[in-house]
Amino acid sequence: MENSDSAQLGGHAFQQIAVTTKDLPRAITFYRNVLGLKMLFESNNMAFFDVGGVRLMIGLDRSRPAARPTSVLYFDAPEFLATRSKLKALGVPFEDGIETVDRKANAELNLQQFTDPDGNALAVMGWAKRS
Predict the structure, then answer these.
(1) How far apart are CA 89 and CA 47, in angstroms?
(2) What does pTM read for this prediction?
(3) What is the DSSP pairing of strand 72-76 with strand 38-43?
(4) Which of 20, 19, 23, 56 is nearest to 37 (CA)?
(5) pLDDT by 10s per residue, the chain, length 131
(6) Is the CB of residue 60 less than 8 Å from the CB of residue 46?
(7) Edge-to-edge strand order for the sheet containing 46-51?
């Protein structure tokens, strides 16, 4: 069997990421109005959003278990503190504190997790100047 680089996934981008919801209108409101994502279209109990050129599909699944998902979607936040503050003011339920995952001479890479109304794990992640 021939091993071709194009047949493997290294170097390929994500085309679409999917999460589920038990309440599609509520999820649309959260992702569009609270997170500010551009909604592309809605079809067949699914809503599609643009996240930096990658589609995020929110699909209706009323039988979804209540257990917390194991994946986390990290949103790039170049203005980390300003983005976090605005989302917090809009009612985003941030968990725990800000976590620093990398440090440079004058900046640190921070992240903070939160959930959508269905408990899907999300986070904002970005660099902030060190004091």
Answers:
(1) 25
(2) 0.84
(3) unpaired
(4) 56
(5) 445 556 788 888 889 999 999 999 999 999 999 999 999 999 999 999 999 999 999 999 888 776 666 789 999 999 999 999 999 999 999 988 999 999 999 999 999 999 999 989 999 999 988 87
(6) yes
(7) 16-21, 54-60, 46-51, 38-43
